Amino acid sequence: MIKVKLLHPDARLPVVTYAGSDLGYDLFAIEDTVLEPGVPVKVRTGIAIEGPPGCGFVLGDRSSMAARGITYAGGRIDAGYRGEILVCLVNVNQPRYSLKTEYTDAGVLRAASLEVSDASLSIRKGDKIAQMSPFQAMTHYELIQVEELASSEREGKGFGSSGR
Ligand SMILES: O=c1ccn([C@H]2C[C@H](O)[C@@H](COP(=O)(O)OP(=O)(O)OP(=O)(O)O)O2)c(=O)[nH]1
């Protein structure tokens, strides 16, 4: 069971459409927010949660939002965290710049101005803004320093070693 405390009158319980199949519960915004390009914004959900012992949560993109250029930063909700869940969103769209010029009949530049498109995006109160997947904390393992690690097929190969 996952316990949810509503901290705000506009807060809603997270929802899942296909329980047991979907990987995450959708979270809702409790406030209108404008996302300027490239600026991370913490959006309030108005909820606090408590999962089964040792169960934290990983927040992630909703794919429909990712397709609009809204992505997620942060996203680890520790098992013992009882504060409000904040959803840190980033608008990765970039404005388009265009240079407008005016010339006289004689071909002399008379005026020039730079136009910038509006790449900001809006989140409205009640929008689904992220999904939250239960995740079992495994950080009770003791870390010990060693001189050697067990060999493996991959060994130290990484960063694209298997090809593109
Ligand atoms: O997207 C997020 C990420 C984190 N948190 C909350 C829950 C999490 O348990 C707590 C701390 O997050 P994290 O450990 O990732 O942040 P930190 O910057 O390392 O902070 P701390 O020093 O408090 O661990 O903040 C959120 O509400 N939303």
From TrEMBL:
EC number(s) on file: 3.6.1.23
GO MF entries: dUTP diphosphatase activity; magnesium ion binding
Ranges where the dUTPase-like domain occurs: 22-100
Biological process according to GO: dUMP biosynthetic process; dUTP catabolic process
Keywords: Hydrolase, Nucleotide metabolism
Pfam families: dUTPase (PF00692)
Enzyme class: hydrolase
Catalytic activity: dUTP + H2O = dUMP + diphosphate + H(+)
Keyword Membrane appears in the UniProt entry: no
Gene3D superfamilies: 2.70.40.10
The UniProt record lists the keyword Transferase: no
Database matches in PANTHER family: DEOXYURIDINE 5'-TRIPHOSPHATE NUCLEOTIDOHYDROLASE
Homology family: Belongs to the dUTPase family.
Protein name per its UniProtKB record: dUTP diphosphatase
Organism annotation: Acidipila rosea
